Amino acid sequence: MGSIVLRNVKSAILFLFLIITAATIKAQTWPAVTRDCKPATRWWWLGSAVNSTDLKWNIDEFARVGIGTVEITPIYGVKNNESKELSFLSAPWMKALKETEDICTADSVEVDMNCGTGWPFGGPQVAISESACKMLHQSWNVDGGKKIRLNILPFDAKVRNYTYLNKLMAYPVIGKPLDLTNKVNDSLFIGKLPKGSWHLMAIYVSRTLQKVSRAAPGGEGYVIDHFDSTAVRHYLARFDDAFMGSDVAWPNTFFNDSYEVYDADWTPALFNEFLKRRGYKLEEHLPELFGEKDDKGKTLSDYRETLSELLIDNFTTQWTVWAHSHGITTRNQAHGSPANLIDTYSVVDVPEIEGFGLSEFHIKGLREDLGLTRKNYSDLSMLKYASSAAHITGKKITSSETFTWLTEHFRASLSQCKPDLDLMFVSGVNRVFFHGSCYSPKDDAWPGWKFYASIDMSPTNPFWRDVPDFMKYITRCQSFLQMGEPDNDYLVYLPIHDIWRKRIGNDLLMMFEISTIGRQAPEFIKSVLAIDSLGFDCDYISDKYLLSTTSRNGFAVTAAGTSYKAILVPDSAFMTTEVKDHLLQLASQGCVVTYGTQCNAAKPEQMKTQYHLKAVRRRNSTGYHYFISNLTADDVDAFVPLAVQFKSAMLFNPMTGQKYSAIVHEGKVYISLKSGESIILQTFNDDLHLNTLASQMVMSNPKVINKGWQLSFENAEPSVTKVYQLDTLQTWERLDSTTAVTMGTGSYKTTFHMTSAELKSCQDFALDLGDVRESARVWINGQYLGCVWAVPYILQCNHTVKVGSNTIRIDVTNLAANRIADMDRKGIPWRKFKEINFVDLHYEHTTYEKWKPVLSGLHSVIKLYQLKRAK
Question: Of 790, 859, 718, 847, which Cα lies nearest the Cα of 410?
Answer without folding.
Answer: 847
